[in-house]
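pasting for the record
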Amino acid sequence: GAAIVCSRFIGAKDRNGCNRAARQVVLTVFIISVAIMVFGLIFRVPLLQVVFGAIEPEVMENAMIYFLITVVSYPFLALFNAGAAFFRAESNAKLPMFVAAGTNVLNIAGNAVFIFGKLGAPAMGVAGAALSTLLSRVLCMVIIFVLLRRKNQMIVLDHYFKIRPEKNLICQILAISIPSGVE
């Protein structure tokens, strides 16, 4: 949805409209992803019981630890994906691909460090795997949003705390992104 809405403004050479839409996408994605995160935090036990059913207590405990940490990463992952969509809307699919690939390599290295206690870090087991995932998603989002601040591109995102909801634009975004997401 983000790429489609922003692409329409890019095609019309409407930089202001494009940036307004991008800000509304960021706001909407942030609110929805935080709501999903909170839902996951509140209902993690019943959710995991539905997914796994009756399993060994130790396995369920590990699943709850992993889910607890990774559910916190949902807003970061969602914002990275929105930012990546902005670059794709500008015909730059390589940049978010390289950011994702680089942070996935760091995630794998982080798994070795945090799971098995390499490089002086304590062995954390399943919590280490989740922590590595969380940190790589945070890094992905930070990198993509730093890159979105560059003034030489069509979509420029800055002044995050000045973003205010624009109901009509948010409705347009949701009218496109919800069906796309369901599909």
